[in-house]
Design goal:
This protein has about 280 residues and is of the alpha+beta class. It has two domains: about 130 residues, 3-Layer(aba) Sandwich (Aminopeptidase), CATH 3.40.630; about 110 residues, Gcn5-related N-acetyltransferase (GNAT) (Aminopeptidase). Helix content is about 40%, strand content about 30%. It is built from eight helices and twelve strands. Strands 1-2-3-4-5-12-6-11-10-9-8-7 form a twelve-stranded mixed β-sheet, sandwiched between helices. Strand 9 and strand 10 form a beta hairpin. Helix 1 runs antiparallel to helix 2. The longest helix is centred in the middle third of the chain and has 15 residues. It is globular and about 60 Å long.
Length: about 280
């Protein structure tokens, strides 16, 4: 078994794509990032584990963010342990890690044993996939793409979304995100009676799927079904555009949102635990 970094993004994509596509929805983050880096090169560390038959596992980081572990079936605990030792021996910074519950726990236990430091769970997430929308919007209103005119609204709502999701979204970061959303035409709003009442974003796409994130409804508009109708309509749009499925992440502890997504047609396909290191 050999663990190494690959500097060529194109070579890395060629080696790991088929491995990651076996569980495409679960690996949407890695696949989406690889595609984004291919189009707009940015700082990254692309890790690969190979044996004499080829690639058996993948891991990566886009500094200064957390390391990402792939969701691949039947990976031995020792593989993840060796990855931690490899990162430690190459003096790589490890601010945190995220990945399937089991693999992330293997990673953290080995890291704690090596460093004597402590890792803390930041979030337990479920990964959902949808192949068919099961409901029809009933709240009234319409799906509209966000434009430059809604820039200030997106900034405000992204900050509020971060507070609800326990994510550190500063005003500066929210401004960066809002500009990116508008430029990429990825943000959508639900409009009812002339007012914008809910928000969602197409965060990335993979070969066969589109991922939704940043779903947010202000307190004044909650419990009216706006987010439900927004996600259902947006999911329908992506399927009609030719994607075979949609995916999204949810907070495992939020039974309300999990129930809503299941009602729309989403079903659980994987998990992701996010750890932050001391």
């Amino acid at each position: 078994m050999e663990i190494r970094f690959i500097t060529s993004v194109r070579e890395y994509a060629k080696k790991v794509e088929s491995l990651l596509l076996h569980k495409e929805a679960c690996n949407n983050l890695m696949l989406g990032l690889i595609d984004r880096i291919l189009k707009n090169r940015s700082d990254c560390h692309l890790g690969l584990v190979e044996n004499d038959k080829g690639a058996i596992y993948a891991f990566m980081q886009t500094p200064p963010h957390n390391w990402i572990l792939a969701d691949v079936e039947n990976v031995d605990k020792s593989v993840v342990q060796e990855i931690v030792r490899f990162l430690n021996n190459t003096d790589m910074d490890i601010p945190g890690v995220l990945g399937p519950d089991l693999y992330a726990s293997y990673f953290v236990k080995e890291w704690e044993a090596i460093t004597g430091k402590k890792a803390n769970i930041h979030m337990n997430e479920l990964i959902y996939q949808l192949d068919e929308v099961k409901i029809t919007p009933i709240s009234g209103g319409m799906l509209v793409p966000a434009t430059e005119k809604q820039y200030n609204l997106l900034v405000k709502w992204l900050i509020c979304f971060g507070q609800e999701a326990n994510e550190d979204i500063t005003k500066s970061y929210a401004e960066t995100l809002a500009r990116s959303f508008i430029k990429n035409q990825s943000a959508y709003l639900w409009k009812k009676n002339g007012r914008f009442v809910s928000m969602a974003n197409r965060s990335r796409t993979t070969k066969h799927g589109a991922t939704i994130n940043a779903v947010y409804t202000p307190d004044a508009y909650k419990r009216n079904g706006y987010a439900t109708d927004l996600v259902a309509s947006l999911s329908t749009q992506f399927l009609e555009e030719g994607y075979q499925f949609c995916s999204l992440y949810t907070d495992k502890s939020n039974s309300t949102s999990n129930h809503i997504y299941q009602m729309i047609g989403y079903y659980e396909v994987g998990s992701s635990t996010v750890y932050s290191m001391e």
